[in-house]
Specification:
This protein is of the alpha+beta class and about 180 residues long. About 25% of the residues lie in helices and about 35% in strands.
C-alpha cells in the first residue's frame, strides 16, 4: 500500500500546520463543508467551558477549500509529524483519507482529521444557538476561541477563499455589543 503524502488543512492547519511542508497547494474537497460543530475541551476551551472548533461535515453540493501540505518523506520525521498531528486533533477527531482536488485539476490522496459524530465532543448543528456566545467567551490552552475564528476568517480571506459561513460568524463577533 502506497503511503499518503499529503495532509488536507481546513482549520488551524491553514495557518499553523505545525511542521514544514515540502510543498503546499490550494485544494478543494467536494461534498464537504467547514462547520463549528465540534467542542474543544483543550485547545480553545476547557472541560468545564468547552470552546468550538471546525470540522468537516458531509454536505451535498458543497465544497471546502483549504490547503494540501506535503508531508516529509517517509521515515522518522514523517512519523513524528503524524504523531504530533494525531495528538493535536485528539479531542474527538479521527484520521481520514480524502481526495481534494488542486486548482490544476490534480486529485490528491490526503489525510485529514474529521470529528466523529459518535464522540462526546460532537455538537453538530444542535449547538448553533449558543455558538456566538461560546466563540466570544471560551478560552483554552491554545488561546481565545474568538481568536481562532478571526484567524481562520483572516487566513481564508488572505488565501482568497470565500466561506460565507465563517465570514458571517466573524462579522457577528466583530459587531459591537
Amino acid at each position: 500500500m502506497k503511503e499518503i503524502d499529503w495532509v488536507f488543512g481546513y482549520g488551524s492547519l491553514l495557518w499553523r500546520p505545525g511542521f514544514e511542508p515540502l510543498e503546499t497547494r490550494r485544494a478543494s474537497l467536494a461534498g464537504w463543508a467547514r462547520r463549528f460543530w465540534q467542542a474543544s475541551h483543550d485547545h480553545r476551551g476547557t472541560p468545564q467551558a468547552p470552546g468550538r472548533v471546525v470540522t468537516l461535515v458531509p454536505m451535498t453540493g458543497s465544497g471546502c477549500e483549504g490547503l494540501a501540505h506535503r508531508l516529509p518523506d517517509a521515515g522518522p520525521e514523517r512519523e513524528r509529524v503524524l504523531a504530533m498531528l494525531d495528538h493535536r486533533e485528539r479531542d474527538g477527531y479521527r484520521r481520514r483519507t480524502v481526495e481534494p482536488r488542486t486548482a490544476d485539476g490534480r486529485t490528491l490522496q490526503a489525510i485529514t482529521w474529521v470529528a466523529d459524530p459518535r464522540h462526546a465532543s460532537w455538537i453538530g448543528s444542535a449547538g448553533d444557538e449558543t455558538l456566538i456566545h461560546t466563540l466570544e467567551h471560551a478560552v483554552g490552552q491554545s488561546g481565545r476561541n474568538r481568536d481562532y475564528l478571526l484567524d481562520l476568517a483572516s487566513t481564508l480571506s488572505r488565501l482568497g477563499i470565500d466561506d460565507p459561513y465563517v465570514s458571517a460568524l466573524a462579522d457577528a463577533i466583530r459587531l459591537p455589543d
